[in-house]
């Protein structure tokens, strides 16, 4: 039976999403995102992407999730549908803004989203790391880091988009313990974002263990979760390629849910689905067009870990 709770440290009950009006696959980010597919000769994908986010937001709201849905009407931010990369929110009233590698992605930062957070939630301080871009140091939010809000651990795969110095700076400021490691796909390419490799929920963690190159680090991560009483669900390389690791736990009106794509759900085994179901209800969201850009459900959702104003 899925537990119900009015509060969850790990699973937010409010999220920010961005609905794209001019969606396209970002050619600038293709070099290091092996999950990204070409959309040549596919025609205008914008209506499909717009409809997918519209439907996903509606399904989340049906589950009791507060969805702050913003519009991306410009044509120069092809990855704007993935807001979790440029900002994150944290208990105690803190917001972080991140340094992005691609020039096109830096244009995604929006003052109206930050202003909404300040007006609807108790925000004490906004910490802006975007100046690190001038030093060539990048850290793309909760794409670069998968945060364990319960045990205060930041898991991060080293890549061109995730610099260890930036990770250390964030962890010092926000009181997380950094656990950095290397991970590669079967072709030997670095995993570009940690959140395609793993998902941390309240009672379980889903991880592409075979992609972690250091066996000692792999055992350390597994032991860390098991000592905390979490079930570790090992994901195969094929499941990772289907975005099975790119999920997010949220708190709905009737308890915790795990939001992931229909692509990801079809890749899971019955046993894995059963383990998840002991802790959270699975909510599949169909976003196949969005997934062409190399990200899935987790990437489209920026969780709000802030206290609402009265």
TrEMBL record:
<dbReference type="InterPro" id="IPR014541">
    <property type="entry name" value="Amdntrnsf_FN0238"/>
</dbReference>
<dbReference type="Pfam" id="PF19420">
    <property type="entry name" value="DDAH_eukar"/>
</dbReference>
<protein>
    <submittedName>
        <fullName>Arginine deiminase-related protein</fullName>
    </submittedName>
</protein>
